[in-house]
């Protein structure tokens, strides 16, 4: 135990690390730590191995940048998905939200963020170039299928709208239809908090996207 700490040093260190996680305060970190102390060694080690595995085995899909433990994610590899229709999302968690609706039968492209000039995030920080490569060269898309439609499934807030307009502008002269989700989604909201019915309506009611609107 170090001077000034109530807990032994290993316990204090784990509390400090857990408290760094999003949404986890000091008290929650303490409860989680003491839960692990009470757990069997096998249970605690399973958590340790799971954390180690996501850092050593999880990577980004070579086609869409989704998270996967293979070179190609299960959606890009699925023979029954419509690879000519690509939904562009900001993060893997947004893709999961759309998948839970069971409505969208196409494939995805994960930008791994959105444009935020004030935060230092420009086009080069996102996977925009690989999206354009998929459109320009079908061999870079799932199963070599030519992309016919790009659906901009970005969050309906200022940064999401700015990113959508930038993408629409970049795709203007390419042989692809660009649409965006219907605005049944509340402005300023996050896709991960929308229910399946709202997302289904947004997908089915998608509209043509113009960079000038």
Notes on the structure:
With 213 residues, this protein is α/β, with parallel strands linked by helices. The chain folds into two domains: 9-56, RecR Domain 1 (Helicase, Ruva Protein, domain 3, Orthogonal Bundle), CATH 1.10.8; 75-208, Dna Topoisomerase Vi A Subunit, Chain: A, domain 2 (3-Layer(aba) Sandwich), CATH 3.40.1360. 38% of the residues lie in helices and 13% in strands. It has helices at residues 9-18, 26-38, 41-56, 74-77, 92-99, 128-136, 158-170, 196-204, and strands at 59-60, 67-68, 82-89, 106-110, 149-152, 177-180, 207-208. The strands form two sheets. It has a five-stranded mixed sheet with strand order 4-3-5-6-7. Strands 1-2 form a two-stranded antiparallel ribbon. Helix 1 crosses helix 2. The radius of gyration is 21 Å and the shape is elongated.
CATH topology of the largest domain: Dna Topoisomerase Vi A Subunit, Chain: A, domain 2
- Which regions contain 5 or more consecutive residues with pLDDT less than 50? none
User: Could you say which structural class the secondary elements and strand pairing correspond to?
Assistant: alpha/beta
Proportion in β-strands: 5-15%
Distinct helical segment count = 8
* Element string (H = helix, E = strand): HHHEEHEHEHEHEHE
Please give the number of β-strands: 7
Q: What proportion of the residues is helical, as a percent range?
A: 25-40%
Number of domains: 2
What general outline do the C-alpha atoms trace? elongated
Query: How much is the radius of gyration in Å?
Result: 21 Å
Strand order within the widest beta sheet: 4-3-5-6-7
Distance between the termini: 62 Å
CATH architecture of the largest domain: 3-Layer(aba) Sandwich
User: What's the overall average pLDDT, rounded?
Assistant: 89
What does the oligomeric state look like here? Answer: single chain
Please identify the top-level CATH class of the largest domain.
Alpha Beta
Largest sheet: 5 strands, mixed
